[in-house]
Each structure stands twice: as C-alpha cells, then as structure tokens.
Design a protein that fits this description.
The complex is a heterodimer.
Chain A: H1 5-13, E1 15-16, H2 21-32, H3 34-43, H4 52-88, H5 93-105, E2 109-127, E3 134-149, E4 156-170
Antiparallel strand pairs in A: 2-3, 3-4
Helix pairs in contact in A: 4-5
Chain B: H1 7-25, H2 32-48, H3 56-73, H4 75-88, E1 96-97, H5 101-111, H6 115-126, H7 131-138, H8 142-160
Helix pairs in contact in B: 1-2, 1-6, 2-3, 3-7, 5-8, 6-8, 7-8
The chains are: A alpha+beta, B mainly alpha.
Chain lengths: 174, 163
C-alpha cells in the first residue's frame, strides 16, 4: 500500500463539499418529529378489514354470556330436581323451605342494558349492487353493557364489550 | 463509546460525518439536494435506532440502501434528468472544494472510476472506514474491498501522471 501513499495524500487534500445549512435544520426538525412521526405512522397504518381487538372482546363477552346462561340453566335444572324431591318428601317442611331459599338466591334478573355510542363516522355515500339509490354509510363505535342482579343476595353481574355497527341509510334526492 | 442520544450529540456527530456521507450518496444521484435527502433519511433512521457513532458502517449501509431504493424508485425521473442534463449541459454541483487545477483533475478522475471502486475510495479516504467495515457495508470480503481500493488508486495515479 506504500506505493499509493502519494496519491492517497493528494486525495486527502481534496475536501468534500459541505452540506447546506438547511440540511441541519431539516434533520433537527425530523429529530423533533421522531416521536410524533412514529405515532402518526402507527395511527395512519392501513386499517384491517376486521377490528381484531373489538372482535376479541366481543367473543370474550359472548363466551361469558354463554357460560353464564349455561350455569344459570344448570342451577334451574338442579333446583327443579330438588323441588321434585321435596314434593315427594313433603312431610319434611324445613327441607322444602331451605330448598326454596336456595332456588330464589340463585336467580339473577336483568337489571339494565346500556349502549354508549362513543364515535360516529360518516363514511360517505355509496351505491349498493343493483341499486340506483345512494346510501350513506355510517359507522358507530359503541360499548354495550349488560347487567343482572340477584334480588335476594344483592349480587350483580355485569358484562361490557366494545362493538362496531355499520348502518346504511338511503338518501333520497329532494 | 459515545451515544447519539442527546440533542447536541447528533449535531456534532453529523457535522463530522456529513461531508463524507454526502460524497458517498452523490455516487448514485447527480443532484446535491437528492444526496442530502438520502443522507437525512439515513442519519435520522440511524439516530432513532440509537446506534453508536462508532458503528459508522451501519450508517453507510443505510445510505447505500436508501440511495439504491431512491434510484430504483426514481429511475424514470433520473433518466429524464440525465437526458435533460446531457442536452442542456446543466450545471451539476461540485462534489469537492477545489483549490487548484490538479485537484480539479483528480476530482474528475474520481468521477470516472467504476462505481464499485469509487465507493471503496470514498469510504476509505473521506470517511476513514477500515476494510473490514467497508466489506461489511458492501457485503464483500475484505480482500475484495482492498483490491478494489488498489485498482482505484492505480487508475487515479495513472490519470494524473504527466504524459
């Protein structure tokens, strides 16, 4: 490599052009916007056709409802058996009264249902297949809450989940 | 090991590496503005990932990758610009600051080097990367990087020798 020392020295004397001062400003701005940029990039990511989070919550809520219904039906079924047994052994009055208490204490009654619309988005007009009439597409994002209460024990059960609803409203020309 | 974490750090680091980076980027684009765009994108990406400035090879890898993407993306525009430049003999911003005619001749000789040799010379002389780092950036062996460097210097020396 020593053979090239002279040309290397000549090359080192050549100074590359300096960057424009604007470049520093631009980089500074980019540095400042780093976090904002990353955040907005995440926000503007193309939305999936399915809202997986909502779907997950919805499925979880549905599973909870099914489970609750199954447990409730099982209790009613068991209660019926007890009542039948009690009716066969009607002479044992204390047992019957305790069975009745047990049945009523397991009973949850619907206590309320709310549907909170926290976002509405107008997605514009569209034409359904084969239809000449325009439809306005509205997307509602909601949170639904169902509540049951046991009047005897005062215990309550509440299930809440997010949901999304798309509504098409026909638009008629005036 | 110095990290690019703080606000002032990036400025001092960038002042140090910017001329060499721009020269490196200018191999693929004729316009200084395009080279600055490429360097900006690479440097910001490098900084955001919190790399240490000693890992300069990563910075050059990023510049090279972004520049290649850039010319692929803008190949049509580049062809148009190249055509327009050849037709109008448009002024192209110089890549070096010349002090005399010898330096001007040297810069012109660098311009006509094959790209694979030129990039090694730029990384070695004006960015002071080792052959190991250059080999890493280019994805070649150290021997190949060193050979390209020697061929380039030989060609430059022949160009400048008085006939």
């Amino acid at each position: 490599m020593n053979d090239f020392s002279e040309i290397e020295n000549e090359l080192r004397k050549l100074r590359p052009a300096q960057p424009s001062p604007i470049l520093f400003e631009r980089i500074e701005e980019a540095m400042m916007n780093c976090r904002e940029g990353a955040w907005s990039a995440r926000q503007s990511r193309k939305p999936s056709p399915y809202n997986w989070l909502s779907l997950g919550f919805g499925l979880a809520a549905a599973a909870a409802l099914v489970l609750f219904a199954a447990i409730s039906m099982e209790h009613q079924h068991d209660g019926g058996k007890e009542i039948a047994q009690i009716s066969r052994e009607s002479e044992t009055a204390p047992l019957r009264s305790s069975a009745k208490e047990s049945t009523s204490s397991d009973k949850f009654l619907p206590a309320g249902a709310t549907r909170l619309v926290y976002n509405t988005r107008n997605e514009g007009l569209q034409f359904a297949r084969g239809s000449g009439q325009p439809l306005r597409r509205l997307r509602y994002q909601t949170r639904e809450t169902w509540q049951w209460r046991n009047p005897t024990t005062g215990a309550s059960l509440r299930v809440s989940y997010p949901s999304e609803e798309v509504v098409l409203i026909p638009v008629s020309g005036q | 090991m110095q990290n690019l974490a703080s606000h002032e750090d990036w400025k001092s680091c960038f002042s140090e590496v910017a001329p060499g980076l721009l020269l490196f980027a200018r191999q693929w684009v004729q316009s200084a503005a395009d080279a600055e765009d490429i360097v900006q994108e690479a440097f910001v990406k490098f900084w955001r990932r919190n790399h240490k400035i000693e890992n300069r090879a990563l910075l050059y890898t990023a510049v090279r990758s972004i520049a290649l993407d850039f010319i692929r993306r803008d190949s049509r525009r580049a062809r148009r610009e190249a055509g327009a430049i050849s037709e109008t003999d448009e002024f192209i911003e110089p890549q070096f600051e010349f002090e005399d005619d010898t330096q001007r001749a040297l810069a012109e000789a660098i311009d006509v080097l094959p790209c694979e040799q030129r990039e090694v010379v730029v990384m070695k002389i004006w960015n002071e990367l080792t052959f190991a780092e250059i080999a890493g950036v280019l994805g070649v062996s150290q021997n190949t990087a060193a050979s390209r460097y020697r061929y380039a210097l030989a060609a430059l020396r022949n160009t400048l020798q008085p006939r």
